[in-house]
Amino acid sequence: MSKLTNEPRSKGPDSKGLATRRVNRRTLLKGAAAAAVNFMGWAGYKFDPVFAAFTKATGIKMNFIEQPEQDTMLAQCKLALQTGGVDCVEPTLDRLPAWVSGGIIQPWDTSKLVLSNYIDGVPGAKAGDAGEVNGKRYFIPSVWGTEALLFNAKEAPLTYGTASLADLFDPKYEGKVTLRAHSSLAAMGRILDGQGKLPKPFLDSYKDEATMRQVWDVVLAEAIKHKSNVAQFWASENDAQGAFRTNGCVIGLCWDGTGLNMAPEGYGFVAPKEGAFAWSQGFFALANAKNLDQAHEWAKWISTAEGSAAWATVWGANPVGKGGIELLDAKVKTFYAAAYPGDALSKLWWWPAQDAWFLKLRGEYADKWKAA
Predict the structure, then answer these.
(1) I want to staple 321 with a disulfide (CB 3.0 to 4.6 A). Which of 64, 180, 230, 308 is the partner?
(2) CATH code at 169?
């Protein structure tokens, strides 16, 4: 060995540099722990236990800004580009094009995440998938779930294999149905598509404005014929639950989380034979995020088995992290087994990507549907 390699490391200049780097690292972590994440998410859920678990694990606090739905999130985050105050937001994957084209969000630094944590098949977690735009990752999965048929087990019993989206428009449920305006139009579109009654395939309506108008004009006209079925349109989790508890609804097209919450009160939840609408929800980082490192820590923690199970439990939905499903409560597992029996999971209908032009027109058709 050379004299240099035998020199005690504590006396060399490298040791001083190493010590400095360690001090800097400790300082950085201390600063990160002292900061917080300004997180905008959905109203109607009890997130506090999850936020507390994250803070205990990392020392980072969560400042929660609730919104009723993601159209409002989009509008508020546009304002936040000027005013600040939002680091991270949680829309669904299908909305990504609108957020990117609007310059509202920035790519995640995948070196600060652990993409191998995610289960196989969850949308938005693999290189080259819909979570990327021009090779940059803007979407990090947080939870996934469905929108399917919620029903009163005594007054509107449904069974998988025969339960259909068409049940929502059956005259026998006049004045007893709750729907989300835009997704119920999509349900009608899928029904008419299956019957060969559309000028073009329903999925083509997501590609350009002219095709959308051509297809959705037909869809809207048919939906209006069944407007008497609708007792209430819902826009949030609280709205949907209220439709059944206080407004006399016995059947609806609702989120799986609503189904899980209503199950103890005599309600069932099942995928229609056409396939349940499926959504993948996740985190976007605001273009002017002030606490970006902390936002990365939040997204990374939710990808762990513990974090993804906790987040999915709050939503009454499905975890995205490997090992998360094993940590769910037994009653949740039982609920999902009943909701998606047989080949139901293989028939999921994932919401297509929806750019800004589509969202604008979709809103116009939804408004006409509600006002009809």
Answers:
(1) 308
(2) 3.40.190.10
Please indicate, yes or no, whether residues 16 and 50 belong to a single structural domain of this protein.
no
pTM, 2 dp: 0.81
> Are 235 and 140 contained in the same domain?
no
Q: What sign does the dihedral 77-78-82-83 (CA atoms) show?
A: negative
Matching residue, tokens 């735009």? 133
User: Reduced to 3 DSSP states, what percent helix, strand and coil does the chain have, rounded to the nearest 5?
Assistant: 50, 20, 30
Give the pLDDT confidence of 309-364 residue by residue, as tens digits. 999 999 988 999 999 989 998 888 899 889 999 999 889 999 999 999 999 999 99
Give the span between the Cα atoms of 365 and 220, in whole angstroms.
7
Q: Which residues pair with 151 in a beta bridge?
A: 251, 268
What's the CA gap between 372 and 363, in Å, rounded?
Answer: 14
Whether residues 14 and 44 share a domain: the answer is: no
- For residue 236, the enclosing domain spans 146-278+344-371
- Residue carrying structure tokens 């294999």: 161
Q: Considering only CA atoms, which of 49, 45, 113 is closest in space to residue 299? A: 113
Tokens of 175: 């004045």
- Whether residues 185 and 256 share a domain: the answer is yes
- Structural domain count of the chain: 3
Judge if 311 and 355 occupy the same domain: no
Residue 285's contacts (CB-CB under 8 Å, 6 or more residues apart) are 87, 88, 105, 106, 107, 108, 138, 292, 295
Beta strands 177-179 and 230-233, pairing class: parallel
State phi, psi for 292 to the nearest 5 degrees.
-70, -40
